[in-house]
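INFO batch 0412 | record 1 of 1 | parsing
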Amino acid sequence: MGTDKDLSPLDQAKVLLEDFNLEGAILFDHLPVLRLQVSESQFSQVMELRSELVDKLKPTGFRFISIDLNTPT
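INFO prediction complete | emitting tokens
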């Protein structure tokens, strides 16, 4: 799925994240940092996908992609 360059970096990242099936994941825009919050059960999946997530998400304009160690409430 491609992204629309008219979308904000956060919205582009949200579109790209849909391809990873991380239901309930929450993204936060702290330019230049994109903070990704996932459930505890998805943490290992995110770590396995780390390189691919970074490769897909960095072109949206974020310099750093971080994983929030708190679980969504």
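INFO post-check: The chain has three helices and three strands.
INFO record closed
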